[in-house]
């Protein structure tokens, strides 16, 4: 593993990864954290990789611009909550409050990120439990447990023993998107696959799921730009 930097404004750092299995150069931009990785055949000269990157620089900068910069959570930052953009402000009460396009977070400024993350996780659990309960009742199949994680590769999952897992970041998405993910995972209680029968169950529980699934595909990666560990 090595790194090179493409000069410019801003400069772009690329991680080079050599692979014995690679037969060609492959460039990947992570929508989750914005990292750029170039995978290359093990014996390919590095100068060829640099030439390839220069050819792809316009494409790469365009996709980086489309992704947008990471957003450290702090006073003054703007964050989506249930699909609505809210400005983070210092609060004087005991709990987090929302009103007038602002989300007020009490406490010391250096505790804003952790306190807001805790509040969002609690709200996510409430919303996802309500949606999961409703869809499980409609399906006639109970689930065993519900857990939240900060997953990067999937928005939810369902285990063979009926355990549901969700990304707590779904609370930042529009409510109909969160509800779709809940319906999707509950549907796996009946169909542990993605067959036509499975999608028929999703449609019975949720309705037309295509717009919500499309939002996750096009916009979901942006929810990982909000950094609570800055």
Automatic annotation (TrEMBL):
Residue span(s) of domain YgjP-like metallopeptidase: 26-218
UniProt cross-references to Pfam families, sorted A to Z: YgjP-like
Residue intervals passing through the bilayer: none
Gene3D superfamilies to which the protein is assigned, alphabetical: Metalloproteases ('zincins'), catalytic domain (3.30.2010.10)
InterPro entries membership: UTP_pyrophosphatase-like, YgjP-like_metallopeptidase
Protein name: YgjP-like metallopeptidase domain-containing protein
Organism, scientific name: Salipiger aestuarii
């Amino acid at each position: 593993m090595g790194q090179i930097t493409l000069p410019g404004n801003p400069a772009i750092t690329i991680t080079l990864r050599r692979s014995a299995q690679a037969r060609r150069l492959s460039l990947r931009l992570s929508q989750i954290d914005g990292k750029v990785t170039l995978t290359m055949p093990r014996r390919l000269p590095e100068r060829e990789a640099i030439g390839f990157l220069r050819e792809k620089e316009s494409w790469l900068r365009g996709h980086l611009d489309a992704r947008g910069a990471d957003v450290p959570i702090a006073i003054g930052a703007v964050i989506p909550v249930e699909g609505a953009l809210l400005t983070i402000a210092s609060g004087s009460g005991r709990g987090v409050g929302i009103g007038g396009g602002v989300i007020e977070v009490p406490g010391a400024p250096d505790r804003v990120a952790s306190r807001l993350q805790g509040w969002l996780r609690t709200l996510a659990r409430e919303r996802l439990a309500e949606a999961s309960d409703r869809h499980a009742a409609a399906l006639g199949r109970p689930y065993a447990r519900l857990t939240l994680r900060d997953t990067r590769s999937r928005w939810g999952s369902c285990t063979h023993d009926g355990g549901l897992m969700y990304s707590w970041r779904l609370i930042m998405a529009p409510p109909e998107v969160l509800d779709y993910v809940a319906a999707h995972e509950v549907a796996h209680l009946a169909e542990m696959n993605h067959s036509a029968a499975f999608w028929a169950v999703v449609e019975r529980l949720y309705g037309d799921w295509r717009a919500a699934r499309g939002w996750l595909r096009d916009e979901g990666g942006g929810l990982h730009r909000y950094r609570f560990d800055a």
